[in-house]
Write a structure and sequence with these properties.
rod-shaped
Length: 163
């Protein structure tokens, strides 16, 4: 009976009695219930986390789609702006070419008018010089009333022929 004198034996018996009392009092049931409750709460939190993750993924997909749409819209706007710039550049170039053509034509027309005016001025000056020369020659060679008649007729004829 040395077992009854061993302290480890009595500690084991005391523990067994204590556990029996705790069992009879229902502590294990409340402990199990709290574990079940905690397990259910964790399961609910996991379900909530899963739902939130799915919502976040859906929101991310939606924003990715919006981003892609915005990028394609921005590319379309850039393409349209480039096309408009090219159109404006060609239009401006055409207007500039037209302006240069009109200015060149106007300058050539003014040059032609100036040439015609100079030619007319030279012809008029030549006619006047010829008339003066004829008048001087006739005055020196023809005298009297005949001279005056010949001179007047010659001057009139010369003016009509030269102009």
């Amino acid at each position: 009976m040395a077992i009854f004198q061993d302290t480890n034996f009595w500690v084991g018996v005391g523990f067994a009695v204590f556990m029996a009392i705790v069992w009879k009092a229902g502590a294990f049931r409340s402990f199990g219930a709290s574990l079940d409750e905690r397990s259910a709460r964790i399961a609910r939190e996991l379900d909530e986390a899963k739902r939130l993750r799915e919502e976040a993924e859906a929101l991310l997909a939606e924003y990715e789609a919006k981003r892609r749409a915005a990028e394609s819209e921005a590319k379309a706007i850039v393409r349209a702006a480039k096309a408009e710039a090219e159109r404006l550049a060609s239009e401006t170039e055409a207007k500039l070419n037209d302006f240069v053509t009109r200015r060149t034509a106007a300058a050539e027309e003014r040059i032609a008018q100036a040439e015609n005016q100079a030619f007319a001025d030279v012809r008029t000056a030549a006619a006047e010089a010829a008339v003066k020369a004829a008048e001087l020659i006739l005055r020196d060679t023809v005298a009297g009333k005949t001279a005056d008649d010949v001179l007047a007729r010659s001057i009139a004829d010369m003016k009509t022929q030269l102009n």
